[in-house]
Design brief:
Number of strands: 8
Mean pLDDT: 95
Shape: globular
Helix content: 10-25%
CATH architecture: Roll
CATH class: Alpha Beta
Order of helices and strands: HHEEHEEEEEE
Strand content: 25-35%
CATH topology: Ubiquitin-like (UB roll)
Distance between the termini: 49 Å
């Protein structure tokens, strides 16, 4: 039985070693997993980015969120240049291990545009409307 099925059938409080779970993640062909950042106290979805195993391991070890930049092909430590860091409160994997949810404490705006989050383009009535401005 694979690990994800074992976890699906596990009881409350059951656990598996982190190394075993990381090895079982179905990383993409590029070695990536989708990472959703959510403000831990309000539930606001802040952004979607990508992590490779090194970024996920660094995030878990340091408590500061690190992503993989697909455009720069290198680790991207959120807020390293802007100061708008994300402190990890909790990391969660979805049911089949192909996405990670990062509950974070966001310092400053999450989006590189200066907006609170990256989801400021709302699709409404056949139009895309900007629903927030930079802070």
């Amino acid at each position: 039985m694979n690990l994800w099925l074992q976890l699906e059938q596990a009881g409350l409080g059951d656990s598996r070693p982190l190394a075993e779970v990381l090895a079982a993640i179905p990383w993409s062909a590029d070695g990536l997993i989708a990472a959703i950042a959510q403000q831990h106290d309000s539930g606001e979805v802040l952004m979607l980015a990508w992590m490779n195993r090194a970024a996920l391991e660094e995030t878990l070890a340091s408590g500061q969120v690190c992503y993989w930049s697909r455009s720069r092909q290198q680790l991207w430590r959120k807020g390293e240049t802007s100061g708008h860091r994300q402190r990890l409160v909790e990391a969660r994997l979805d049911c089949d291990g192909d996405a990670v949810l990062l509950l974070v404490e966001q310092q400053g705006p999450a989006c590189h545009t200066g907006r609170p989050n990256c989801f400021y383009n709302a699709i409404r009535d056949e139009r895309v409307c900007v629903i927030s401005v930079p802070q």
